[in-house]
Amino acid sequence: LLERSYSMARGVKIRLRRIYGESVEKGAVADGPVLMEADMSYQIDNMEGLDVWTRDDGALMVSLVSDDNHSMLQRNLYLEFVLHED
What we know:
The chain is mainly beta.
């Protein structure tokens, strides 16, 4: 789950949570362990897209994407992370 927030004072912030499939049901609150939190001190922008996929070597991957909305204040970004099962 990609959670996003924005304020004029702090800019954008994101948080990734792992939501297990068996917990998804009608009326349930989506909650799970936090995998990552980032703010403007990291190379993020208004991250809007999330994909979870398996690489050919079996590694579980998380991809995040943002677009610049045709604004000089934003960027197009593609971020990719390996999700470790620790």
